[in-house]
Write a structure and sequence with these properties.
Layout (H helix, E strand, L loop, with lengths): L3 E5 L2 E9 L2 E8 L7 E4 L2 E9 L2 E5 L2 E5 L4 E4 L5 E4 L6 E9 L7 E5 L6
Antiparallel strand pairs: 1-2, 2-3, 3-10, 4-11, 5-8, 5-10, 6-7, 6-9
Length: about 120
């Protein structure tokens, strides 16, 4: 499969690889932007920062992740990524589950008005 990139209001994601039960994405979050606070019913995620400094929320815990630091997001746990810096951040996301499509996103809060 060739890489597929999709633009979002906060930046973009590129699908790097996918197979039965997994998907790997490169997520780029532009300076000052934030993904929606969300959860997934059918997949877990593991994020690793490869460039910049990310502010991540998992459940009630907010953490700062630097390059080469990672965090695990269990199925049905609310989470988001925010970029409070003046440069972009880049993360590798590994999704694992029996359903890995974008319509498994349940948004709790979204600054861009998406449902």
């Amino acid at each position: 499969m060739s890489n597929y990139t999709e633009k979002r209001p906060w930046g973009s994601f590129t699908i790097l690889d996918e197979g039965k039960g997994f998907k790997v994405k490169r997520i780029t979050v532009e300076a000052g932007e934030k993904l929606s606070l969300q959860y997934h019913n059918r997949r877990s995620e593991h994020w690793t920062v490869v460039y910049g400094k990310a502010t991540v929320t998992v459940g009630e815990t907010v953490s700062e992740l630097n390059v080469d630091e990672s965090i695990y997001i269990p199925i049905k746990e609310k989470h988001c990524i925010a970029n409070h810096t003046t440069d972009f951040i880049e993360m590798i996301e590994v999704q694992v589950g029996d359903y890995l499509f974008e319509d498994d996103i349940v948004r709790i809060e979204d600054r861009y008005g998406r449902k």
